[in-house]
From TrEMBL:
Organism ancestry: Bacteria, Pseudomonadati, Bacteroidota, Flavobacteriia, Flavobacteriales
Signal peptide stretch: none
Entry protein name: Glycosyltransferase involved in cell wall bisynthesis
PANTHER family (UniProt xref): GLYCOSYLTRANSFERASE WBBK-RELATED (PTHR46401)
Keyword vocabulary terms for this entry: Membrane, Transferase, Transmembrane, Transmembrane helix
Transmembrane spans: 70-98
Domain (Glycosyl transferase family): residue spans on this chain: 191-312
Alphabetical list of Gene3D superfamilies matching this protein: Glycogen Phosphorylase B
InterPro entries named among the record's database cross-references: DUF1972, Glyco_trans_1
An annotated Gene Ontology molecular function: glycosyltransferase activity
Length: 359
């Protein structure tokens, strides 16, 4: 069976959740299926491979995100319709092509609609309306709609009166690595710290987190793309001189990232939009105590067993009270690990996708 995976930056994964999903599907199932992955050539300059883990890689000269994701997805879909038995489409940017494919072929189309992208603050009104329409088209015309969180599953049912299939993300690709003295010295970090890694965007509530930690002496390390937006630049300018705040640029080396993340005493998750966030399930699999922004997506992901905050005052109260009790954090950490081992392994996720295209 020939399967095309559409909508990612590409593999080897070095960008985000969909890329990690594609790589692990190929890793788990590559011996049983003929995979083709569409990749963004601007992201793989000087390191393009024809195959990876047995999957065939096809490069397009467009970025896979932002406005160019529309043409990127459309070309990928049109190309795939001529050879693939199953089109696994990750995201809805080019969903208007799905009914076209359905009219002219009998290809099986499975669409992961992502995390209600049209709700994100980073998009303008026109983009939000476009993405909402694409979501509607994807749900209506795909053979199967995949969602990664119960909150989105409920949205699809109530908004479109359609069933969907809940499949989250795996996290067992992350690993513990002892925190070295050389890493601390290289990055000028203290030994004990809370940690967060994310895109620096308003919907991730970085401003709330920095303000709360800034009123304490609790060390916080935040890894993100500070220079990619005015929001990030302004926050860095405001907080760069706070002695307990360490604002680091993106770290793409998984060894170094895991070294920092796995050794924090608290993982802070501020995402308020989207569904099941890969960085959150990874932190859970590492057995980290987690304080998360209080929205239903995060409560579903953490099985309602993490610590939660809705405002800066909520977070400040947690930092000044609950964090004084190590036993409480240990209990949260244990529950996070137990949930992750049950729900978020790539073997389980891959088998769930395999069941869809084999049905």
């Amino acid at each position: 069976m020939k399967i095309a995976i559409i909508g990612t930056v590409g593999i080897p994964a070095k960008y985000g959740g969909f890329e990690t999903l594609a790589e692990n599907l190929v890793d788990q199932l590559g011996g049983k299926y003929d995979f083709t992955i569409y990749c963004s050539s601007p992201n793989y300059r000087g390191e393009r491979q024809e195959t990876y883990l047995g999957a065939r890689l096809r490069y397009l000269p467009f970025h896979a995100n932002g406005k160019s994701s529309i043409i990127y997805d459309v070309i990928s879909i049109v190309h795939a319709m001529f050879f693939a038995d199953v089109l696994l489409i990750l995201g809805v940017s080019g969903a208007f092509m799905i009914p076209v494919i359905k009219w002219f072929t009998n290809k099986k189309i499975i669409t992961n609609i992502d995390g209600l992208e049209w709700k994100r603050d980073k998009w303008g009104d026109i983009a939000k309306k476009y993405l909402k329409m694409q979501e509607k088209i994807a749900v209506r015309f795909s053979n199967v709609t995949v969602v990664d969180n119960e909150g989105i599953e409920n949205h699809v049912f109530h908004e479109y009166a359609k069933p969907s299939t809940l499949i989250a993300y795996g996290a067992d690709h992350v690993f513990y690595k002892e925190l070295s003295k050389s890493t601390l010295e290289e990055l000028c970090l203290p030994k004990n710290f809370a940690f967060k890694v994310c895109r620096i965007e308003p919907e991730n509530n970085i401003h709330i987190i920095l303000e709360a930690f800034g009123k304490t002496t609790v060390n916080l390390v935040v890894v993100g793309n500070w220079n990619n937006s005015e929001y990030g630049k302004e926050l860095r300018e405001i907080y760069v001189n706070k002695e307990n705040l360490y604002l680091l640029d993106p770290i793409y080396d998984p060894n170094k990232l895991n070294e920092l993340r796995a050794n924090c005493f608290l993982y802070v998750h501020g995402h308020s939009a989207g569904g099941t966030n890969p960085s959150l399930v990874e932190a859970m699999y590492l057995g980290l105590p987690i304080v998360a922004f209080d929205v239903d997506y995060n409560r579903y992901t953490t099985n309602n067993e993490a610590l939660y905050f809705k405002t800066g005052e909520d977070l400040l109260k947690l930092l000044k009270n609950d964090l004084a009790y190590a036993k409480n954090l240990d209990t949260v950490a244990l529950k996070m690990k137990q949930t992750a081992k049950k729900r978020y392994t790539w073997k389980f996720i891959s088998e769930s996708y395999e069941n869809l295209w084999s049905a």
